[in-house]
Amino acid sequence: MAKDMTLLWGSGSPPCWRIQIMLEEKQLQGYNHKLLSFEKMEHKSQEVLDINPRGQLPAFKCGNHILNESYAACFFLENQYKSQGNKLIPDSPDAQALMYQRMFEVLTFHQKIVEIVTYNFRVPEEERHDSAVQRNREALTAELKLWEGYLNKTDCCLAGKEFTLADVVFFPSVAFLFRLGLSSESHPVLAKYYNSLKDRASIKATWPPHWQSTPGPDMMKTI
Amino acid sequence: MAKDMTLLWGSGSPPCWRIQIMLEEKQLQGYNHKLLSFEKMEHKSQEVLDINPRGQLPAFKCGNHILNESYAACFFLENQYKSQGNKLIPDSPDAQALMYQRMFEVLTFHQKIVEIVTYNFRVPEEERHDSAVQRNREALTAELKLWEGYLNKTDCCLAGKEFTLADVVFFPSVAFLFRLGLSSESHPVLAKYYNSLKDRASIKATWPPHWQSTPGPDMMKTI
């Protein structure tokens, strides 16, 4: 079945990485994939637009189904391959409720990172303000404090002992932060989470290739 | 079981309305609820903060489970009450894939509305630019075109003939747009969708109370 899947992706993009981790977790290796370059604007190519009219990566086809939204792909794959690979939605109502709640809070967490990282791309020069940059950084600082608290209350993973969909969507953004120089000393609980999962098979197998060869900018060092 | 649920909500907030529709669809009437005022800043009250540390509405408790994120509440309720009320995740892989994909695209659709509506609240006066306002309006115009195309290809609902979770999360944002003066002539397919669902029992029963008594501003008239 994995032979019937095609993923167009960009290295280091958390939404792309989520789908890659998911495919590993569900033992769906062997899918077709193609690494494209954001710098060369390949995400606006016809090849991508044919799958994803938004001209964004990931562009993911699973048989005839188009699942470009990373959360959509995760839910669909978990539902269609329930008994294959790792089960990523827990049965217990407690863990399930916590998983869903955290999973959707991740969207806010990720958005706050994106607002800082993409500021100069998104905002034309004449509209940029140091006060906005400062506010975005303060918003991320407050957000990280919240997650340090959340993780302090759980065992290992976001919804308890088991690795779930919440971790599939959260880990890539956490790794991105550390890649951008986030301080482990100032964020010890997030650092512990990061270190406990970075060698998990599904994550190691899909680690962004260009992260291995080039260092990231120190954008998050003083957050 | 509904007696064990508490929803703190604000009138006209699409995320609050999603949970209200969901509770009706799953025949979970009789839950505790309290209407709070955004204008009076009641979403920052201790009562809300005790459930939702972000100080946002909805604040939703289902037994001991906290599900403030509207998507989290929808998924949890659907999963816990599978055989009660209407089934909102279709079995067919085709409809399911389409439902998930659209459901998560709704987040982008809704975000583009929010960026326009909250611009003056979010952005301090000295950082506001007409060019940014214009860009936000163009982004929503392009987004609406995409959804006109999507809806043109389906029967009645977002993922086909059946009302699904995708409609639970989409409808409140569509209704919000028409409340703000969106032109039916310029958006005939969205208007058809809106008109075909506005009298659905779950939607009618939860219609934002202040919308019935006061007209909305004409903010979206020229989109």
UniProtKB/TrEMBL annotation, chains A, B:
Residues 3-85 form the GST N-terminal domain. Residues 92-219 form the GST C-terminal domain. Gene3D superfamilies: 1.20.1050.10, Glutaredoxin (3.40.30.10). CDD domains: GST_C_family, GST_N_family. It comes from the Eukaryota. Belongs to the GST superfamily. This is Glutathione S-transferase rho. It comes from Amphiprion percula.
